[in-house]
Recover the amino acids of this structure.
C-alpha cells in the first residue's frame, strides 16, 4: 500500500511541475548542449593552434604575431555585432583564448601581451 501511495505522490508531484519549470529545464538542457559544443570547438581550436605553433617553430618564425591577433579580434568583434551580442565580451573571450595558447602563460615564447581590461 505504501508503494502505491508513494507512486501516487510522484504522479501528483509531476503534475504540479509548472510549465515554467518544464520550459526552464528544457532551455537549460539546450544551454548545456551548447556549452558542450563550445568546449569541443575550443579543443579543436587549441589543436589547430598547436599545429600552427609547431610549424612556426620548425621554420624559426616568431610564435606571436600581433597583426594576426588583431585580425582575429577584429573579425570576431564584427561577427559578434552581426549576431547582435556584446562585441567587447566576445573580444575578451578570444583574448583569453589567445593568451592561453600563445602567451606568457602558455609555455610558448610569445612575448608580452597587453592586459585584458
Amino acid at each position: 500500500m505504501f508503494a502505491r501511495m508513494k507512486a501516487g505522490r510522484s504522479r501528483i508531484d509531476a503534475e504540479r511541475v509548472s510549465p515554467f519549470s518544464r520550459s526552464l529545464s528544457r532551455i537549460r538542457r539546450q544551454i548545456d548542449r551548447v556549452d558542450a559544443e563550445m568546449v569541443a570547438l575550443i579543443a579543436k581550436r587549441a589543436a589547430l593552434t598547436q599545429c600552427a605553433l609547431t610549424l612556426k617553430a620548425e621554420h624559426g618564425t616568431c610564435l606571436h604575431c600581433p597583426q594576426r591577433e588583431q585580425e582575429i579580434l577584429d573579425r570576431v568583434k564584427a561577427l559578434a555585432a552581426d549576431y547582435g551580442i556584446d562585441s567587447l565580451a566576445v573580444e575578451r573571450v578570444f583574448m583569453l583564448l589567445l593568451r592561453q595558447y600563445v602567451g606568457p602563460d602558455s609555455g610558448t615564447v610569445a612575448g608580452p601581451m597587453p592586459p585584458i581590461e
Q: What stands out?
A: The chain has two domains: 1-61, 62-117. Residues 1-61 form one domain. Helices lie at 2-16, 19-58, 66-83, 87-101. The radius of gyration is 23 Å.
